[in-house]
Every structure is written in structure tokens, then in C-alpha cells.
Design goal:
The structure holds two protein chains of two kinds. Chain A is mainly α. In chain A, about 90% of the residues lie in helices and about 0% in strands. By secondary structure, chain B is an alpha+beta fold. In chain B, the strands form two sheets. Chain B has a six-stranded antiparallel barrel with strand order 3-4-5-6-7-8. In chain B, strand 7 and strand 8 form a beta hairpin. The radius of gyration of chain B is 30 Å and the shape is elongated. Classes of the chains: A mainly alpha, B alpha+beta.
Chain lengths: ~60, ~300
């Protein structure tokens, strides 16, 4: 695994999720909860995609 | 309709401030928590991209090469294409606006090509080309360049010295003089093309010249239009990192578009404490439908 890519992808995903969620809601708790759910879903999706790409590139 | 609990104040002013600086519109409206998220998040992303790209991912125009002459050395303003990526980057506002100012300066800078306006002291990196009947001989050199124009008000010829080392590592001072080639002052590269003839008192010494680059000041290369040569150099030295840098700046600009919208219209989904509508609630499994419902279904309504 490319750790430099991971050190860029994770903060990038976190910022996108936080900013996007903040533009959807006004309440602090709702923003943070929505951002966390979106972050987890995105990372899981990217992780599955990455594993598929590793599998097909064998 | 925007929730009345969201203090939009003057939406146009808020949107303009949000465009100029991420989070500024929300600070104006008193929505401090979101203002901190937007300013810290988006500006961090943009600055991170600029650092990764060595300050060069943002430019508004790509300079095209229309002849054998390098765009930096073209006395006539070379043709340019608008950089579509800039359409995303400019959305971040003030941090990306210098690119427009640099484009304006670039278009009015033709007179600076091959013209030395003031004494130049800079590091030089390039090669020493010795012309002889047997052919050209080149070797890499680097050192400290110091030249002055032939006229105090500036000229296309200059005299000076290059302090370097010879092939055995011994200090060497090369006397320079004559017509020089100097890249235009405003260009999107920290390296400015330079070449000048090397003077020699010994008639047996073959004619030679130095060809390479000197430093361009930050004010003259930051967010200025650049050409494909410079892009190739960046991609060659930074590889994938330059692509990542560009993507970071695009995303920062596009996220600010959402922020501008939020400043003008409020949050897209509402305040965040709304309950779902009664009609959207699904019936519990043990609830029986009302008698009127059956008649309604039978009548086909």
C-alpha cells in the first residue's frame, strides 16, 4: 500500500465530508454526525474499490 | 424557504465575502462554527496543494509555442489558451486572483525579452558551450552570475562575470559580454532563460557561451502563465505529486462554490432538527388500515 497516498487521501476525504455536511445542515451535532457517517461510507467504498483494483491487477 | 433561525443578514454581501475568502461570509453572518470549518478546511486544502506543487498548480493561461523560439524568449507575445482548471481554482477567491493579475502583466511584458533593465546577481545553472572547428563541446556548470547592462537605463547587451569551478574543481571566473538572451520578466517558472557569450583575451581559445537559467523573482513567476516546457519540468521533477497538487486546488475551489451557496441561501437540507413529515411515516405492522381506505382503493382513486 502506498502510505503517502493514504496520508493525502484520508485528510482530503475528511475535509470534503466536513465541508459538504456543513453546507447541508446548521446544527453542530447534525453536521458532525453527518460528516462522520459520510466519511466512513466513503472510506469503505474506496477501500473496496482499492481491493478490487489490486485483485484485477494480479 | 430558508429556516428563519439561520441569520443570513444581507445574502449578497455574505455570498461576495464567501467568494473572496472561504468562511468570511459566515463570519459576517455570525455563523462562527461553520465559518471556522469552511475557512480552515478549504484554505488548508488550497495551501496544501500549493505547497505540493511548489507554488505552481495555479495559472490562468497556458502559453503555446508557435515557433522554434522558446515562449520565454519570444519577443512577440506568444499565443495562449485558457486553463479550464482555473475555472475551478478561481472559485476560492483572493488566493487564486493573482493569476489574473499576472496574466495582465504577462501580456504587457514583451519589451523585457532579451533586455536587462538593471544589474543582475543570481545563481546560474546550465552548460558551457565551446564552439570549435571540431564541433561544439559542452559541459555542465553552475555558479554565481553578476552582470550589468551596457547602459544605465538598460540595454540588450551586458558585461559581467560568472564565478564557477573548472573541470578539476578549481575556482574559475568567466568574463561575459555582448548581446544576451534573457527570458521575459513575467513567466510561470522560477527559472529564467539566460545565455551570453564568454569573452577571452586569448585568440587561440575557441568561442564559447554559457546557456542556462537564472533565478526569476517570486513576484514575477507566482501564478503567472506558463508553457508546456515548464509543465514537463514540473511533472518530471514532482511526478504524481504535481497532479495531486492540482487536484487539491480544484477541489478547494469547487467546495467554496457550495460555501457561497450556503452563505446566500442557508443550509441545503434545513436546520437539522426537522422531524420527518407524518405522510412519510410508514405504518406499524400491527396497525390496521382505516375502513375508508378500502373504499378508496376499490373506486380506483
Amino acid at each position: 500500500m502506498d502510505y503517502s497516498l493514504l496520508s493525502q487521501a484520508l485528510p482530503l476525504t475528511a475535509i470534503i465530508c466536513l465541508v459538504y455536511s456543513a453546507t447541508r445542515f446548521e446544527l453542530r451535532e447534525k453536521i458532525l454526525r453527518s460528516a462522520l457517517v459520510m466519511f466512513i461510507k466513503t472510506i469503505m467504498f474506496l477501500g473496496v474499490l482499492y481491493l478490487l483494483l489490486v485483485w484485477f491487477s494480479r | 424557504m430558508t429556516d428563519p433561525r439561520v441569520p443570513l443578514k444581507n445574502p449578497l454581501v455574505a455570498a461576495l465575502l464567501a467568494f473572496l475568502l472561504p468562511g468570511a461570509g459566515h463570519f459576517y453572518q455570525g455563523r462562527k462554527f461553520k465559518a471556522v470549518i469552511f475557512s480552515a478546511g478549504i484554505l488548508t486544502l488550497f495551501v496544501w496543494g500549493m505547497v505540493l506543487g511548489h507554488g505552481q498548480p495555479v495559472y490562468s493561461q497556458l502559453v503555446l509555442r508557435s515557433s522554434s523560439t522558446l515562449p520565454q524568449l519570444s519577443r512577440k507575445a506568444p499565443p495562449q489558451n485558457f486553463s479550464y482548471a482555473y475555472a475551478a481554482q478561481v472559485l476560492i477567491g483572493i488566493p487564486a486572483l493573482p493569476a489574473l493579475i499576472q496574466d495582465f502583466r504577462f501580456r504587457r511584458d514583451d519589451d523585457t525579452v532579451n533586455f536587462l533593465a538593471a544589474p543582475l546577481n543570481s545563481d546560474f545553472t546550465g552548460r558551457l558551450v565551446e564552439n570549435s572547428v571540431r564541433g561544439d563541446r559542452q559541459r555542465q556548470i553552475s555558479g554565481r552570475l553578476s552582470i550589468v547592462p551596457s547602459r544605465p537605463e538598460g540595454s540588450r547587451s551586458a558585461t559581467g562575470t560568472l564565478t564557477t569551478t573548472d573541470e578539476s574543481g578549481q575556482p574559475l571566473i568567466l568574463n561575459l559580454g555582448g548581446q544576451l538572451e534573457l527570458g521575459r520578466r513575467v513567466f510561470g517558472s522560477p527559472l529564467r532563460e539566460f545565455s551570453c557569450r564568454v569573452l577571452s583575451d586569448d585568440p587561440e581559445t575557441p568561442a564559447s557561451e554559457i546557456v542556462g537559467t537564472v533565478d526569476r523573482s517570486f513576484v514575477n513567476w507566482f501564478q503567472a502563465p506558463l508553457d508546456t516546457n515548464e509543465l514537463d519540468r514540473l511533472n518530471g521533477s514532482l511526478s504524481r505529486q504535481f497532479d495531486v497538487a492540482c487536484v487539491f486546488t480544484w477541489i478547494a475551489g469547487l467546495l467554496n462554490l457550495l460555501v457561497i451557496w450556503d452563505a446566500a441561501q442557508g443550509p441545503a437540507y434545513g436546520y437539522g432538527d426537522e422531524k420527518p413529515e407524518e405522510s412519510e411515516k410508514k405504518p406499524e405492522p400491527d396497525e390496521k388500515p382505516e375502513p375508508g381506505g378500502q373504499a378508496t382503493i376499490a373506486s380506483g382513486r
